[in-house]
Amino acid sequence: MRQNVNFTERMEFVITMMASAGIMDAYSYIQRGQVFATGQTGNFTLMAIRIVQNNWMGFLYTVLAVVAFWIGIFICWHVFYTIGKENDRRWKKIVLVIEFILLAIVGFLPDTIPDFFVNPIISLAAAFQFCAFRKMGTSDTYASVFCTGNMRTCAESYYLGLIKKDREALRKANRFSLILISFFIGAVLTAILCHFIQEKTIWAVNLLFIFLYCYSGTLNFRRRR
Predict the structure, then answer these.
(1) SS3 state at 135
(2) Mean pLDDT of 74-86
(3) Which 8-state DSSP code applies to residue 136?
(4) CA-to-CA distance for 221 and 224, rounded, in angstroms?
(5) Calpha distance 84→167 (Å, rounded)
(6) Mean of the pLDDT values across residues 20-45?
(7) pLDDT at 39 over 90
(8) What distance lies between CA 103 and its chain's CA centroid?
(9) Sign of CA dihedral 47, 48, 49, 53
(10) Residue predicted with more confidence, 40 or 208
(11) How far is residue 154's CA from residue 161's CA, in Å, rounded to a whole number?
């Protein structure tokens, strides 16, 4: 798993990304108007419910989050072909920097700022993460901001591992279980922190990114020795 893979494809990086996704999703729902920053399926459901309930302000919040996610995908690929010069590693570094800045800004915005200004920024950051980080190890792909596809892969792999006695499938199932748990832990941590530091809770993602930067630097230093 650790051989012949980029740092962004290592398990340590993947579980950190999933924890950050859990933080973003729980934060946007708890602290910023009950909208999902990463779970766009949930947002489509919320849009339908809020139309029926005549909750037009809630509908607007959700629409803006969905639109921001779409725009984020477009911008992310534009960055890949322009600033990133189609260099995958350079592109991912740029994405992490942009995401870091966007979420840092969100933490500075007080609760008095209307949520329909804040949630699109979080959704934009989530779209960048989803677009750029999708490979794990040498062959696995995963969704770096939500759980549905990861749950399907996990369940399929457990079936192959437990019923068909495929050991590699079982190892894959264990990896996907770990990233699902990481998302859950990120969401739980957010639910706790929101009681104490409110809008600044989103900075937990920034702290995770700083950890990744330091950890990557440590690995590079060890390789050079």
Answers:
(1) strand
(2) 95
(3) E
(4) 5
(5) 39
(6) 92
(7) no
(8) 12
(9) positive
(10) 208
(11) 10
135 closest CA partner among 14, 17, 12, 1: 14
Residue type, 174: N
Residue ranges of alpha helices (H) inside the chain are 11-30, 40-52, 56-81, 88-108, 115-132, 148-162, 167-197, 203-224
Q: Which residue has the tokens 């979420």?
A: 103
Distance in angstroms (rounded) separating the CA atoms of residues 67 and 69:
5
Which residues lie below 8 Å from residue 214, measured CB to CB, with a gap of 6+?
none
Angle (CA) 7-36-146 rounded to 5° is 35
Number of residues that make up the chain = 225
Judged on CB neighbours under 10 Å (0-12, 13-18, 19+), 111 is exposed
Distance of alpha carbon 58 from alpha carbon 83, whole angstroms: 36
Positive or negative, the CA dihedral 118, 121, 127, 133 is: negative
The Cα–Cα gap between 95 and 190 comes to: 23
Q: Which amino acid is at 31?
A: Q
